[in-house]
Amino acid sequence: MRIVVDLNRCLGYAQCVPLAPSVLKLSGEEALTYDPNPDDTERLRVLRAAASCPVQAIIVEKADAQLDTKLDDR
């Protein structure tokens, strides 16, 4: 799994942070830091955090390795 946060869109509401605290952290009052490649065990938490974002700044993607595996299976 890979996540991308559009920091230009993020307004620092931090509603996502308590839902995935090991992946998303608020640094200072408004600066969001995050792990772009969290462990798959965090998937449900990350999806909930992304859904909670009022400006939809969090994008969750499949990891490149997962995509490569699916392409090889064709």
From TrEMBL:
<dbReference type="Pfam" id="PF13370">
    <property type="entry name" value="Fer4_13"/>
</dbReference>
<protein>
    <submittedName>
        <fullName>Ferredoxin</fullName>
    </submittedName>
</protein>
